[in-house]
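Q: Sequence in, structure out?
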Amino acid sequence: MKKLPFVDRNVIFVFLVPFVFLVSIDLIMGDYELFTLINLGINNFVLDVVCVYVSPVLFFTFYLFTLVTLYVTHRSSHLACGVISLATGLVSYGIGSLIKLLVQRPRPFNVLQHVRVIGPWETGSFSFPSITTMLAFGFALPILFLYEKRHFGTVLSILSFFIGFSVIYAGFHFPGDVAAGIIFSFCIASCTSKMKGTITNFLGRKQT
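A: Exactly. Output:
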């Protein structure tokens, strides 16, 4: 019997431990209080630049590098990993957008009096879940689950957490929005990753 992605030791330490830490701190402090601490309590110019501009550029640059690395091997299993990653990211973004319309949770700046809003992040009306976070984890998690060169998935997962932190810091999402986005993407990626064998076989036939 094949192991499920979430029982892999690397996944536990790279993904589940930080996620549980985020949820625990959010439950202990409260969603509004943790948001205020991140958005107002630790703000400085360096974090402004890093969270708003560096984090998305760094993530997508490394993600494109990962896709190219998968492609140039010309191995059907690696190509399948890239296909699943792209599909999971887009599906996560789409499902997150539908959930957002159903839940209709207001943005932090529509609920709280003192909120710093910085940068060109998403400015739609609703906050839950963070579809930016879902997109990042949707791209990253299949790489973490499926690609045997574990450092690629590890780096992408760390950068995805930083994307989640950045949308809180920039004033667009509550921590609960980010946590929900992470778990939604995890569930989606756990399902799509099971298609690797089928896609690998299909691509293998195409290459012959």
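The chain has one domain: 5-114+124-202.
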